[in-house]
Amino acid sequence: MKIGIFDSGLGGLYIANAIRTYLPEYDYVYLGDTLHVPYGRRAVDTVYELTRKAIDYLFSEQDCALIIVACNTASALALRRIQQEYLVKAYPNRRVLGVIVPTLEHAADHKLRRIGMLATEAMCNSGIYEEELGKIDPDVQLFAQSAPLLVPMLEHDGWDFLDQALEKYLSPLHEKKIDSLILGCTHYCLLKEKIAAYLGSGVTLVSQDELIPEKLGSYLNKHSWLEAKLSKEGQFNVGITDVSRSFCATAEDIVGPSIGKIQRIDLL
Ligand code: DGL
Questions:
Q1: Which of 127, 128, 44, 58 is nearest to 87 (CA)?
Q2: How far is the CA of 185 from the centre of ligand 1 (A)?
Q3: Of 154, 224, 249, 256, which one's alpha carbon is 20 to 30 angstroms from that of 135?
């Protein structure tokens, strides 16, 4: 059985790449919902329904034993309900993991105290990061900043306009004297250098491509019953729900020549 990696679009391929590099032996299938990206301004029920369909596809059509919801927005708006209601009934012996709790555990382990977070609007409005952080360490302060323009700019070749948008989103966080910044969206891995240059060396960047692979490795070590089900041929397949030339070009840019044929997936 495989490991599924789901994202609203193509940004999750950065997380998928990092996971494959760290744990190359397993078989992976990536699903990007390019037909409905961006999720970041959608209603909670819509994100739940889209995520549920994606999970259903990865379990029933792709024989995944475990799915990583790499999308922060889907992790925030849909994961808990999927785990507590849907999974228990439909796939009790399989698992779906998100990226929020591991990210916060990483931040707490590194003794970060004034954490900024850049994320989509829906994710900031969800309040999930604050809620989960309260359980891990209620004394840590979190300053959330939504950055609605960044994903559209990154998806549409808008690099020339990024500096102005980053200034707008990062300056309020800078004023809060944050000691760290969570890049709370799959796409923001791309912006690490620009953000680090803006915030300076006193601010630690928490980037999910650098922490999720290790967290997944230790999850698999602790859950040997699940690990034993995973096939180990090092395969990687990519499927997206809208196969345009530009989506394929972006996916190929991120993954490189090993990407193979990108499949078009219809989610029911
Ligand atoms: N992939 C999403 C996330 O990590 C961001 C893009 C979107 O708005 O769909 O939150």
A1: 58
A2: 5
A3: 224
> 111: alpha, beta or left, given left = phi > 0 and alpha = psi -120 to 50?
left
Amino acid at 241: T
Cα separation values, 1 from 143, 159, 203, 233, 266, Å: 40, 39, 40, 11, 21
Assign 3-state DSSP to the chain and report helix, strand, coil percentages, each to 5. 50, 20, 30
| Residue 2 bridge partners (DSSP) | 64
Residue type, 96: V
| Token duo for residue 22 | 């760290």
The catalytic position among 71, 124, 189, 248 is 71
Measured between alpha carbons, how far is 89 from 208 in angstroms, rounded to an integer?
Answer: 30
Pocket of ligand 1 (CB under 6 A): 7-9, 11, 37-40, 71-73, 120, 123, 151, 185-187
In this predicted model, what pLDDT tens digit does every residue of 114-146 receive, in sequence order? 999 999 999 999 999 999 999 999 999 999 999
The string of pLDDT tens digits covering residues 219-251 is 999 999 999 999 999 999 999 999 999 889 989
Q: Which of 15, 125, 187 to mutate to test the pocket of ligand 1 (most atoms within 8 A of CB)?
A: 187
